[in-house]
Design a protein that fits this description.
Elements: H1 6-16, E1 21-22, E2 30-32, E3 35-37, E4 43-44, E5 52-57, E6 70-74
Antiparallel strand pairs: 1-4, 2-3, 5-6
C-alpha cells in the first residue's frame, strides 16, 4: 500500500531486520463480493515459526466483515 501508518512502519522495520517473520502461506484471508486478498498474517520469530504447520483459511463467518478465520497447528513437547 502507498499509505502506511506509524504502526505499519514499525512492523516493516521488524520484518526488514529479521526480528520477526511471517508464515509463508498463499491462501487469501479476506473475501467480499468478488474481491479476495491476503490481509491477515501469522507473525512470529524463530524457532516458533518452524513449528507452525497446517495453516488453513476457512470460509467466512457471517456476511458482515469478510475475514476468514485462520487455524494452524503448533508442534510442542517432546517427540514420543
Amino acid at each position: 500500500s502507498t499509505k502506511t501508518n506509524a504502526r505499519g512502519k514499525q512492523l516493516q522495520e521488524l520484518l526488514n531486520e529479521g526480528i520477526i517473520d511471517c508464515v509463508d502461506d498463499d491462501s487469501t484471508t479476506f473475501e467480499k463480493n468478488e474481491y479476495e486478498a491476503k490481509l491477515d498474517w501469522i507473525l512470529g520469530s524463530q524457532p516458533l515459526l518452524s513449528f507452525i504447520t497446517n495453516v488453513e483459511a476457512h470460509p467466512t463467518i457471517g456476511t458482515i466483515n469478510g475475514h476468514k478465520p485462520l487455524t494452524f497447528d503448533i508442534q510442542i513437547g517432546a517427540e514420543p
